[in-house]
């Protein structure tokens, strides 16, 4: 019983930013009386990639994105909701998913390119 109490009192760990990302939808999804305006996208695990190719996901192939989004979004979107996402929301989600597969060298290159184009003050 003491072990159960100690476990229950332990705070939940913070979300890992390398495994999760939030996307604010430009066009919220209406689900009954609920409005979904933000999705949490989780880095997919191997089993969730079944039937897809990494090349398609990295290349942000629309068909691959429409298959993976319901598997890794929270709240979980239905296939119909996913199919009806606005293009800019699909692009934002696709970029988020693509980011999960970037190498550290790619991330450093993008950071350097962004820094290079920042206004000089």
Overview of the structural elements:
The chain has six helices and three strands, in the order αββααβααα. Helix content is 46%, strand content 19%. The longest helix has 14 residues, at 87-100. It has 121 residues and is an alpha+beta fold. A hairpin with a 2-residue loop joins β1 (20-31) and β2.
Mean pLDDT across all amino acids: 88
Poorly predicted runs: 1-13
Kindly estimate the percentage of residues that lie in beta strands according to DSSP.
Answer: 15-25%
The radius of gyration over CA amounts to 18 Å
Helix content: 40-55%
Beginning-to-end CA distance, first to last residue? 61 Å
Q: Could you describe the largest sheet, including whether it forms a barrel? A: 3 strands, antiparallel
H/E topology pattern: HEEHHEHHH
Number of helices: 6
Count the strands? Answer: 3
Estimate the global geometry from the Cα principal axes: globular
């Amino acid at each position: 019983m003491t072990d159960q109490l100690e476990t229950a009192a332990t705070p939940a760990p913070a979300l890992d930013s390398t495994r999760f990302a939030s996307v604010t939808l430009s066009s919220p999804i209406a689900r009954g009386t609920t409005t979904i305006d933000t999705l949490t996208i989780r880095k997919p695990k191997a089993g969730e990639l079944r039937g897809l190719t990494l090349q398609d996901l990295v290349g942000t192939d629309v068909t691959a994105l429409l298959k993976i989004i319901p598997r890794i979004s929270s709240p979980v979107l239905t296939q119909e909701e996913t199919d009806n996402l606005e293009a800019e929301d699909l692009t934002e989600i696709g970029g988020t998913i693509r980011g999960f597969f970037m190498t550290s060298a790619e991330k450093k290159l993008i950071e350097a390119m962004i820094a290079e184009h920042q206004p000089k003050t």
